[in-house]
Design goal:
- Belongs to the chalcone isomerase family.
- This is Chalcone-flavonone isomerase family protein.
- InterPro entries: Chalcone_isomerase, Chalcone_isomerase_3-sand, Chalcone_isomerase_bundle_sf, Chalcone_isomerase_sf, CHI3-like.
- By secondary structure, this protein is of the alpha+beta class.
- It has 7 helices and 11 strands.
- It starts with 5 loop residues before the first strand and ends with a helix.
């Protein structure tokens, strides 16, 4: 396997990372907003998966085109909820306070849970823990947020590293919160980064062909 970095909007991403196995960069994109006809980029995103896991758990969609998959929220729900190890690497392009990022995540996760009648006291407590983890941090350019989603036990380890400091970590163990955190990035038409969804759809279509 080549070790050259993959450039995602001028941000370098490793083509593979090693967790309990080798995971490949299968989706990439950005979060951005257009202000007065100018594109402002906030983060670059890389989604890492094991292609063999994709074949095993998403075989039902074999033969679909990237365009088909990009418009299929059921496919992305299956990806998010499937017993597939996933790592989502988020690199900061535009500096932001950690508290602002935390509130965006909190609002999305809470709204998704409430819509499915799953937002109880346990979820609220766990979500407050996640928001608290980001609260005091400052996301300088090139800071990295890593979400490591385990395949089977519904646990997510969040990592944050910036400017040569050691990575800080937080373990999230509420299955409902972990599930909706995945869907924040991986929920098709409701995902936070449409460009990442399109990229993933194209890559996964090729893997499933």
């Amino acid at each position: 396997m080549g070790t050259e970095m993959v450039m995602v909007h001028e941000v370098p991403f490793p083509p593979q990372i090693i967790t309990s196995k080798h995971l490949s960069l299968l989706g990439q994109g950005i979060t951005d907003i257009e202000i007065h006809f100018l594109q402002v980029k906030f983060t670059a995103i890389g989604v890492y998966l094991d292609p063999s896991d994709v074949k095993t758990h998403l075989d039902k969609w074999k033969g679909k085109t990237g365009k088909d998959l990009a418009g299929d929220d059921d496919f992305f729900d299956a990806l998010a909820s499937g017993e597939i190890e996933k790592v989502i690497r988020v690199v900061v392009i535009k500096e932001i306070k950690g508290a602002q990022y935390g509130v965006q995540l909190e609002n999305s996760v809470r709204d998704r849970l409430a819509a499915e009648d799953k937002y109880e006291e346990e979820e609220e407590t766990e979500l407050e823990k996640v928001v608290g983890f980001f609260q005091s941090k400052y996301f300088k350019t090139h800071s990295i947020i890593t979400y490591r989603f385990s395949a089977k036990d519904n646990i997510c380890e969040i990592g944050f590293e910036t400017e040569g400091k050691e990575e800080e970590k937080l373990k999230v163990e509420n299955a409902n919160v972990v599930g909706m955190m995945q869907k924040w990035y991986l929920s098709g038409s409701r995902g936070v980064s449409p460009s990442t969804i399109v990229s993933l759809a194209d890559s996964l279509s090729a893997v499933l062909t």
